[in-house]
Amino acid sequence: MSKRLTCDVVVVGAGMAGAACALYATRAGLDVTVVDRGPVAGGTTGAGEGNILVSDKEPGPELDLALLSGRLWAELGAEFGKSVEYEAKGGVVVATSPSGLTALERFADGQRAAGVTAQPVAPDALYDLEPHLAPGLPGAVHYPQDSQVMPALAAAHLLKASGARLRTGRTVTDILRTPGGAVRGVRTDGGDLHAPAVVNAAGTWGAALAALAGVDLPVLPRRGFVLVTEPLPRMVHHKVYAADYVADVASDSAALQTSPVVEGTAAGPVLIGASRERVGFDRSFSLPAVRALAAGATRLFPFLERVRAMRAYLGFRPYMPDHLPAIGPDPRVPGLHHACGHEGAGIGLATGTGQLIAQALTEKAPDLDLTPFRPDRFGGQDV
What is the pTM of this model? Predict the structure, then answer.
């Protein structure tokens, strides 16, 4: 006979989104169990840079979620301190041409109207912010609300603080349903977990979990590489990226795209991204992608030409066709909630997502309108 455990909520996924859902659900008074087939932060979270950004988001639902999440991250940063390597260091988006600066300033104007602090930076002031940038850049925009955490540490600390039961190394093989079709828990290869609510926080694998419940959720993997340098004194003080990064994030292309993103870390190494391509779950090393990352980074920061890259790693961003995550209850399956599909913004958006999920689970008024994030918005048929 299989072992059974009963609780209020089963969260599937022990990455950043699952950890945040567990934290806010337990703080709302719910009894939570988190299950994952691997270790904590063993998927996309462990391959992330830890970005908490408003700078790359245009006005709309995702920016609203980012602003909410940023406020919550600041609270958690004060609570957990250095243990999660939270840094409110700000971001600097650099234009590499006069026409690019014009477009960037226009983009920032719209963000300011939506509540973002976006400060124009003249060429002479730019080098006060980042002295080691390449000479001759025409200007930038400074985003003091951007911040960073160490994602694996943050997920682990949030899960521990939640007090939720943690079941790692267990694969969910089915979503248990009542005769009426409502959720009654999950089946794992280590036994059944019974609960009237299940949260799909499986990230890039969210589509497969949704399919177990008989519904379609169009989450696709978008592969990305990160280069890690040897430890250095702090020479990059903000998250710094070229303005064309914003266009790459919003692109629907499946082809390889790279744009330079460079940031220092509390531990010393510099992280260099960002690449994007849709190649399924292919974990092959891509020399063209890594070379493009290195070339873009050295164009922004020439000193990096003399710095050794110690390693490169890859992860799969959970891409959705409209670049918005699925958050909230799924009307097709009572008791099923989704918290996935954040693409490359999952670390930053996790806190707001967790708060919204907790509010939905406890039938509280949500901080944001969940309509843009409805899991059934694509009109997909049950599977």
Answer: 0.93
